[in-house]
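Just scan my protein:

. . .
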Amino acid sequence: MRFDVLVIGGGAAGMMAAGTAAERGLSVCLLEKNAVLGKKIRITGKGRCNITNNCDVRTLIESTPTNGRFLYSASSQFSPHDTMRFFESLGLPLKTERGGRVFPVSDHAADVAEKLAEFDHRNGVKIITGSAEKLLLKNDAVQGARLKNGDDIMAANVAVCCGGMSYPLTGSTGDGYHFARQAGHTVNRIRPSLVPLTVDGEDGKDCRSMMGLSLKNVSVKVVDSKKQKTIYEDFGEMLFTHFGLSGPVILSASSHMSEMSPSRYRIIIDMKPALSYEKLDARLLRDFGANKNRDFSNSLSALLPHKMIPVAVQRSGIPPETKCNAITRDMRQSFGTLLKSFQITVSGFRPVSEAIITSGGVAVDEINPKTMESKLIKGLYFAGEVIDADAYTGGFNLQIAFSTGRLAGNSMKV
C-alpha cells in the first residue's frame, strides 16, 4: 500500500491532520487501532466534549504551562476561533459556557467525533483499522510504517498522532513515544496531568468520610511547602473521594504540581469565599445566637453540607456537645478560620491511566514549530498529546491537538 501521507492515530490531532492533507489533494491513509475514530473524544468533557476555549492565541499560550511558546505558529495559523468556525462550517452548532469553554449545542461528544470523521471521509481519506509496529526509516527520512500483521504502508510523510498514556482503554498506550524513540527523538519524562490527587493519613481518613461530597463555589489555593509559596489559586467545584480529591479545580491544580512528592503540596479550601473573616464571624455569631441552647455539632446544618459537619467539628477542637451559648469569641473565630482555610495535605497523583492528559512527551526542541516536522527525520511529523506540551482544563488541550494537527496536515509535501 502506497500513499502520500500516513497518519497514525485517529484521534483529534490525527483526524485533523489526515483531513487537512487530503483536502490539499494528497492521498492519505489514516491508521487507527480502534474500530471507531475519535474514541477518546467521545468520552471527554463528561461526554459533552469541551472542543476549545473561546479565547485569543495569547490566552491559549498562557494557559499552556508546558512549552506554550512552542505552539505560537500552530495556534496562530489555526486559532481557537478558527476551530469554532471549522466545526460550525461542518454543521455543528456551538455554544460558549463559563470560563470560555466551548461545547456542541447538542451536548453530545460523539457529534464532534462524527463531524471530524465526516471531514476525513469527504476528502477521501483511506481509513484502515490496525496497529503500527514500527516506522520504516532510510537515510534519515521516513518511508512509511510496518503494521503488526506484517503489512507495510509506504508514505513519504508520516504523522505520529497516537496521543499519550491517559485513558489507555481508548487506545492511548504510549505507542507514539515508541515511534519517536525509534526515530532518535528524546521523550521527556511521562507523568499524569489534570489528574485526581491522593491523600493519606488523617486527611485521607477525612476525605473518605466525606466521599461523594461535591463542593461548589469554593476557592482553592495550592501551597508548595518546599518553596513556601502559593503556586495556584482557583474557584469552582471539587469532590471528595475514597482516595482523596477530584473535580475541576483539583484537576487544574494538579498541572501545577510538577515536582510531586508526599506532603509537599497542601490544598487550602475557602468554604465561604464570598464572606470576609469579619462577615463570616458575624454570620457565626448570629447562627450560634439563634441556636444558643443546641449542641455545637447540631447547629451547623445551615452553614455546611451534612457530610462535612463531623469533620469540621472534629478539626475545630470544640467538643461536639458544647452548647452554642457557651462558645467563646476565640472558639468562634478559630472555627471561622478553619472554614476559610480548610487544609488537605496531598500525598501524590492517581495513576496516569486516570489522567485527562499526559504531561511529557516528544521534546519540542527536536520538532520544527512552523511545520510540526521532525528536525531529525525528513517527512516525520508529530501532533497532539504525543508532544511535550500540555495545558489547563477548559478546552485548551483539544485546541492544541487541532492546531498542531492542522499545521502538520498543511505542511506535508510530496
